[in-house]
Structures are given as C-alpha cells and as structure tokens.
C-alpha cells in the first residue's frame, strides 16, 4: 500500500507542476482532475479561444495494478523520465498510449 500512496503523490505533484503553466489563450483555464479512489489523473484545458470552444485532455495518467499508465500526453514533457527521476521503477511505468505490441521495444513496463 505504501507504494501505491507514493505513486499517487508523485502523480499529483507532477500534474500540479505541469498544470501551473498558463495557456496562451486568456479565456482558457487549466483544471486538475485527481480521482484518488479510482486512480485517474488528468490535466484539462477548458474555455474559449475567440469563438472556438476549447476542451482538451492534455495529460491523462492512471494507476492500474500498482503501475502508472501514461494514457495520453499532448505535450513535449517526458513524463516517464520525470517519474523515473522521482524513483518510479521503469517496469512500473506503462506507455498506454503505445499499442501493446510495441511496448516490448520500450524501456518501460508491458502492462
């Protein structure tokens, strides 16, 4: 259980840091979504750019079977590297945004 709590803390710290960046559109807000019961974590952009509605999931991470799954990353941030620098084992990080048949060629977990 300690590992799971530590991973939750790592994710929340990272997303809080990433979510502090301000979007270029002034009418767009950044929302941090932390579901610590079901272990879903997201950064959303919500608002308007002129007449265009903005609703984007920028980053989505999950914890499944005590592994951190990177489900979506629309940034140039190397989330997996940041997690390993915090102490997460590479085999405990799954690149869910990659097809399962390609994960064997990464330096991370298979899922």
TrEMBL record:
One Pfam family here: XisI
InterPro entries: XisI, XisI-like_sf
CDD domains (UniProt xref): XisI-like (cd16382)
Name of the protein in question: XisI protein
Species annotation: Nostoc punctiforme NIES-2108
Biological classification of the source: Bacteria, Bacillati, Cyanobacteriota, Cyanophyceae, Nostocales
